[in-house]
């Protein structure tokens, strides 16, 4: 991670779970992080806990369903740091429901958060990286549901479709970068069931977590840090990480 010391990262969804721990790991490694989330109190708590670390933690209140909030985040980075080196698309929502009982507003929230927001983050990141012609890294936190829609035995409704969309987005992004000769690497992380606030948002998911081999947020963060630590000539295209049962 030495090559990223003093570099600038944007991480979405840092108020809990994978995003929070990732922000801590990056700052501890010497990366300056702009953390984004809706809950300003959580951002303030995280900021206070990251004083006197190797890197610096900055934050902005950001609703990823609000395009202007996303645009403002990149404007903040350009104004205060002059460049962007790392983008981590982490923010997501999981709504468990059958198609029969699905609500239109839930569908809209899911698609805007899991599909449109990452696309907007990527768009703004490419503009800024290409403007300054620097090496950079984009990590998209996806899901095993973006590879197999029925791998998790839960009523997932539109969630796997949103993650399949991100899988396609990741592939078309890599092709565009290659065609444009950008010095940008792209990695997709596909975690299995992970014990985060996102998964504990429903009683059904909590029950599944208790009987299914699951990951901890650190397991996913370790994958991200591994990808970022690869030499400049190495791109980790995809990492699939799942929990397995262990003897008690």
Automatic annotation (TrEMBL):
Pfam families: adh_short. InterPro entries: NAD(P)-bd_dom_sf, SDR_fam. Keywords: Oxidoreductase. Gene3D superfamilies: NAD(P)-binding Rossmann-like Domain (3.40.50.720). The keyword Transmembrane helix does not apply. One of its GO terms (molecular function) is oxidoreductase activity, acting on the CH-OH group of donors, NAD or NADP as acceptor. The keyword Oxidoreductase applies. Belongs to the short-chain dehydrogenases/reductases (SDR) family. This is Farnesol dehydrogenase-like.
